[in-house]
Design goal:
Blueprint lengths: L3 H16 L8 H12 L5 E6 L3 E7 L6 E7 L26 H17 L6 E7 L7 H7 L10 E9 L6 E2 L3 E4 L1 E10 L3 E2 L10 H14 L1 E2 L7 E10 L6 E2 L2 E10 L2 H22 L2 E10 L2 E3 L1 H14 L3 E2 L19 E10 L16 H17 L1
Parallel strand pairs: 3-4, 3-5, 5-17, 6-16
Antiparallel strand pairs: 1-2, 2-4, 6-17, 7-15, 8-13, 8-14, 9-12, 10-11, 11-13
Protein name: Amidohydrolase
Pfam families: M20_dimer (PF07687), Peptidase_M20 (PF01546)
Cofactor: Mn(2+)
Length: 381
């Protein structure tokens, strides 16, 4: 059980991390702070620089048994925070309004509990992962040669979720978070004088035709196995002048699907539609992909283990709020481990994630830490 002094120090850590947020791939100071705090717990092994700035602490019992990984995220968002708490971000335009500061504090709480009372068998790995917000972090970590020695048999993560009653857990076996990818489309033609637009090749009509065609590929609807959604996030054409007929157009879209294979099929259909529109208008096409996330699928056994832990702790759990359209790159760990993502309720009236006034509630830190610990004890003693 976390002592009062532990909770006070974990809250202080959470608020210190909140003041100094760093965006994906730039988590230098955050990783240094986490590594220093982990060093005080005397883990069997401390690994730095995983997949960029990732940090992992290994608590090895020395006895045979499974490796159980618990993950938190290091990165923050390029979103200005509305000043509403004393520990407001000190970095202009960057904030922890997704709650990763709280996730790190919960995981550090687990570290304290394991350091105070080591597990009887197997290993506990605390994984502080970089670049979750871009979908690049888990991929970089799992591809890092150093990850092979840490590869888990089970993996668990907690994400705070506004809209759920405080302290309750939303979870289910199967789909938890959709697969997604950002697509940037450039249509390249030729500019012309605005008095003679026929002398150029404008992407205007091609872009206009693509808007309804692409949206029709992913109309949304019920979040079942057939779910697909195309969200157009940016559209631009030409320069803000009056004398030039445009020669270039740009369209950004986010594609989502309930399954990785559905997302791949959606991408193929989008490329076909774009190619057809470009060919008809005599335009060249450039397509680039960004922020790719695999679907996050909860393994039935890992979900059952988490459910038993919650019931032992008297925590209410349900399928409210899940699965989610939003993506989470934790799904990649589930390709090689039995994994489960758990959504811990922040409160029904709490500001939404990525809102400029979201702040992770400190009172959730011991709840998350003790849930993680119960899972670890149930598996490793």
């Amino acid at each position: 059980m976390l002592r009062n002094a532990d909770i006070v120090e974990l809250v202080a850590l959470r608020r210190a991390l909140h003041r100094r947020p760093e965006v994906s791939g730039a988590e230098v100071e955050t990783a240094r702070t986490i590594a220093a705090a982990l060093s005080e717990l005397a883990p069997s092994r401390l690994v730095r620089g995983l997949g960029g700035h990732g940090v992992a602490a290994v608590f090895d019992s020395g006895a045979p048994g499974p490796t159980v990984m618990f993950r938190a995220e290091l990165d923050a968002l390029p979103i200005p925070e509305r000043p509403h708490v004393a520990w407001v971000s000190e970095i202009a335009g960057v904030s922890h309004v997704c709650g990763h500061d709280g996730h790190m504090a919960m995981l550090m709480g687990l570290g304290r509990l394991i350091a105070q009372r080591p597990v009887a068998r197997g290993r506990v790995v605390l994984m502080f992962q970089p670049a979750e917000e871009t979908g690049e972090g888990a991929r970089a970590v799992t591809r890092d040669p150093g990850f092979a020695a840490l590869a888990p048999d089970y993996a668990f993560a907690i994400h705070g979720l506004p809209g759920l009653p405080f302290g309750t857990v939303g979870m289910r076996p199967g789909l938890m978070n959709c697969a997604s990818v950002g697509v940037k489309i450039r249509l390249l033609g030729k500019t012309a004088h605005a008095a003679e637009p026929e002398a150029g090749r404008s992407p205007m009509r091609a872009l206009a035709s693509l808007v309804p065609r692409l949206e029709a590929l992913g109309p949304g609807g019920a979040l079942d196995g057939d779910f697909r959604l195309v969200t157009l996030t940016h559209l631009g054409v030409g320069e803000p002048t009056f004398g030039i007929a445009p020669g270039e157009g740009v369209l950004h879209a986010t594609l989502r699907a309930a399954r990785d294979e559905s997302l791949a099929a959606l991408e193929d259909e989008l490329r076909a539609q774009v190619g057809e529109a470009a060919q008809a208008a005599g335009l060249e096409v450039e397509i680039s992909e960004h922020d790719r996330f695999a679907a996050s699928i909860n393994d039935p056994e890992a979900t059952a283990i988490a459910r038993a832990a919650m019931e032992a702790l008297g925590m209410i759990h349900h399928a409210q709020g899940v699965p989610m359209r939003a993506s989470e790159d934790f799904g990649l760990f589930g390709r090689t481990a039995k994994a489960a993502m758990l959504c811990l309720g922040v409160g029904e009236e709490a500001p939404a994630l990525h809102n400029p006034d979201y702040d992770f509630p400190d009172d959730l830190i011991p709840l998350g830490a003790h849930l993680f610990e119960r899972i670890a004890r149930d598996l490793l003693g």
